[in-house]
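hi!! sorry for the late reply, been swamped w classes. u asked for the two structures so here they r. pasted raw, havent cleaned anything up. first the sequence of the first protein and right below it the tokens
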Amino acid sequence: MTKLSVNINKIATLRNARGHNRPDLLQAARDCERFGAQGITVHPRPDERHIRYQDVRDLKAVVTTEFNIEGNPTPDFLDLVRETRPEQVTLVPDAPDAITSNAGWDTIRHQEYLQGVVRELKELGCRVSIFLDPDLDMVRAAATTGTDRIELYTEDYARQYPQDPAAAIRSYRAAAELAQELGLGLNAGHDLDLDNLAYLHQNLPGLAEVSIGHALICDALYLGLENTIQLYRRQLASSPTQY
């Protein structure tokens, strides 16, 4: 079964807009789990414009499902991971001023660096996932870093999906099949929503987890958080294509 990890960055963005504690981020994480989320994802950035480093420390004490911390492995980020030791760390090569993640790793160019980071994180007891574009060369090079999983960056899929779902999924399916051959676990995330999630799930072999935040929180404004999480879970219950 493909697990749903809810990214709660946008809840923190709303809280930060007024400088108080409404909405309560910790309660929101508890509620997401109670409503069916199988993991909680956060992506702290250096400017703390949404998730703050202290939020990560506080969440570690209350999250009872899988806790996934995403981010660029800067010294401050790695110090936070050493302190909190989440179940999963997703390495994302975003610049400090990036509005959102916008590219996967070049695992060839950064091979030696990633090997060192992956080794340390695994020694801490964390599962490691590397954020990747659906490029077969990058998948092959990811396998030699020692990472446990890759996370496919799905913005291109989401953009192409309304016009041609089959074309949109093609490179992602090839990357997923190669990941299976190489013994890599598979995650996916970015711009996934109630329109495109089921098709992705049905066509990516071995998909272990999706991380969804922006679209899910937007849907929750209209549909309610509990109902929205159940609707996303339902998309992941659809039968995958047989290979």
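now the second protein. again sequence first, tokens right under
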Amino acid sequence: MRAFDDATRRNIAEACAAFARLPEIAEPSALKRAAVVLALTESDDGGDTAFLLTRRASHLRAHRGQWALPGGRCDAGETPVAAALRELDEELALELSADAVLGLLDDYPTRSGYLITPVVVWAADSAAITPNPDEVASVHRIALDTIERDDAFDFTEIPESSRRVIRFHHQMSLIHAPTAALIYQFREVLVGRHTRVTDLEQPVFAWR
């Protein structure tokens, strides 16, 4: 159990600070920059620490109805941190300042042409979360204990790739990469392991 308090915030900030991100690629990339947020907040039961996971609206053109961390494409000249905070506000009406940022995880390249930067933030006051119906069908608080279970993640193979496909088991759903990969790396950071996830594969339906 990780209580939602200042001690947990300090511990997670220290874990993020101790994590050495992979170096950024020096040459220009053809991938479009994007950012997502691991927003830490109080769990539904109260007391425990959780992160926010959304279900994308069913009318969206891309990845409709899928589980996702809040986030999106970086605007021109926008840093990943700024984009992550902007998207969190636009999707969930949760406005945070840069002081809420605890750290960054590894950039994850997607099959659909994006380079995603995961930004870990502390959302101390999330009582007024309001999902934007244009983008979000629902928002869920996933207790950190959930992702620390031994059976929370598994790996499988697909004939289209030699890389392992990661899956996060949430309730009756299977959540795949990139979302599952980023959550998995965050789980590893929490326990002090420098586990890389850029080689973890996405299912074929996410390649577009």
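hope this helps!! also noticed smth abt the second:
The chain has four helices and eleven strands.
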